[in-house]
Amino acid sequence: MKKKYHLFTNSFNQNWMCFLAVVPLLLSTAQVRAGSWTSSLQDGSVLKVDPDSRRATRYYNGGVAPLWDGTHRLEDGSVVIVRDGQAVPTESMLNSWAAEPGSEPRMRERYCDQLVRKVCGFQNECGRSQPCVLARQLLNMEHEQQRRAPMGSGPAPHTVSTGECQDALSSPAFPACTASVPKSRDTDCKKLVDQVCGATGQCASSAACDPARQLLQMENQERLESLDPEAKTPTGAECEKAMGNAFFKRCQ
């Protein structure tokens, strides 16, 4: 029994050391800019929410990790809700971000455009799927509702369809397009996933596969909210560097 325990302990320690090796890379992509909203959770850890991606990140005892989905109570008694890794903005967050000029990218609240990108694919590779057809209908309805709204000097107003698109972004009825694209169109993080996990996922159990997939998810979110989804994102730049990192070794 003692021998089994030592085997388990050694395996755990090896996995933990691998995780510590990749933390600086994940931290560099999640590093919070000056406009990030910060608060303390009741367990004493620090919660930071990025104003662009709304990613909720927890910092604790020298470690860092995405905050899990659910309702989290802060030190002051208020709560923050996290869905799909993103914090639902509170009044405190919105007030903090509004005080920072330029911290609100134009695509961040264009939920119908994001939904079309998500389910139809960045190159429209899932353009004929039913979720894509529905997403485009919602986008067209939003445009029509905005056209009928009173003219203003600010950005296009949110409509009923805007709210429906925002909800649809986290609905299983609108899954992300997974159709393959030509290798020449692969992003840096997709190349990294293929390198460490294998083109068919044959190395999915490797220590580096899950972190690579997490980076790809972060890159995809940045592309959804980018004015130019084909442009290299901050996470994409980190994936490009990671290709030569010994931790992200090629699947054998």
Q: Can I get a quick summary?
A:
With 252 residues, this protein is α+β, with helices and mostly antiparallel strands.
Description:
The protein has three domains: 36-102, Beta Barrel (Thrombin, subunit H), CATH 2.40.10; 105-179, no CATH class; 182-252, no CATH class. Helices cover 44% and strands 11% of the residues. The chain has eight helices and seven strands; from the N terminus they run H-E-E-E-E-E-E-E-H-H-H-H-H-H-H. The strands form two sheets. The protein has a four-stranded antiparallel β-sheet with strand order 1-2-3-4. Strand 5 and strand 6 (79-83) form a beta hairpin. Helix 3 packs antiparallel against helix 4 (130-148) and helix 4 (130-148) runs antiparallel to helix 5. The longest helix has 29 residues, at 2-30. It starts with a helix and ends in a 10-residue tail after the last helix. 30% of the residues are buried.
Strand order of the largest sheet: 1-2-3-4
Number of domains: 3
- Cα shape: flat
Structural class: alpha+beta
Give the helix level as a range of percent: 40-55%
How is the main sheet built? 4 strands, antiparallel
Number of helix segments?
Answer: 8
- Over the alpha carbons, how many angstroms does the gyration radius reach? 20 Å
Taking the alpha carbons of the first and last residues, their distance comes to 33 Å
Q: How many β-strand runs? A: 7
Rounded mean pLDDT score: 80
Order of helices and strands: HEEEEEEEHHHHHHH
How much strand? 5-15%
Low-confidence stretches: 2-21, 29-34, 100-104
